[in-house]
Amino acid sequence: MIEKSALSFSWLQRCGLLGWGATVVATSTLMAPVQAQNRVYSTDLTNIAAAANGGRVLESTSTIDNDANFNANNVIDGKVWDSARQTGTSGWASNKFDPVNMDSITLAFAGNSVRRIGKIALNPSSAVAPERWAKDIEVQVSTESAEGPYTAVAQITLSKTPTRQEFLILPTAARYVRLAFRSNWGSDRSVALGEVEIYEAIGQGDPMGQVITQLEGAINDLKRFRQTQIDIAGATPVKSAARPGAKPGARPARAPQTARAKGAAGAQAALALEPATVQLIQLAGGDLAPRLPVSGTNIAAAANGGRIVDSTSTFVSDPAQGPDPAYGPEKLIDGENYKGDEKGSFGWASQGFAPGRQWVTIGFRDDRTKVISKFVLNPNSNQSNLRWARRVDVQVTSDSPKTGPFRTVGTFTLRPDAANQEFTIRPVEAKYVRFVFVANGPGNDNLANADPDISSDRSVSLGEIEIYEVSASGNELDALISRFENTLTALKVLRRQAPSGAATDKTALKIKPTTRSAIRKS
Question: Measured between alpha carbons, how far is 413 from 390 in angstroms, rounded to an integer?
Answer without folding.
Answer: 6
